[in-house]
Amino acid sequence: MTNTQTINSWIYHPKPNTNANLRLFCFPYAGGGASIFSSWSKILTSDVEICPLELPGHRYRITERPFARMKPLIDAILLV
After folding, report:
1. C-alpha count within 13 angstroms, C-beta hemisphere, residue 34
2. What 3-state DSSP class applies to 36?
3. Residue 74: helix, strand or coil by DSSP?
4. Distance between CA 63 and CA 58 in Å, rounded?
């Protein structure tokens, strides 16, 4: 990970855009990780910030228990 990357337990920001007018939260497909969205910022306008979610049980969060139901997952995401 480079110094320009900001990462917390939920949202992966390879290039944070604090001046964005719109933040697009992206959910990876089943078994996928947040990195699938890494190229999206190149094709969207600069006023859109891509905020891909890294869900428990995937990639660097592989040791965390994944959610089996949507309601608890949504409740957890709303706290981020």
Report:
1. 22
2. helix
3. helix
4. 8
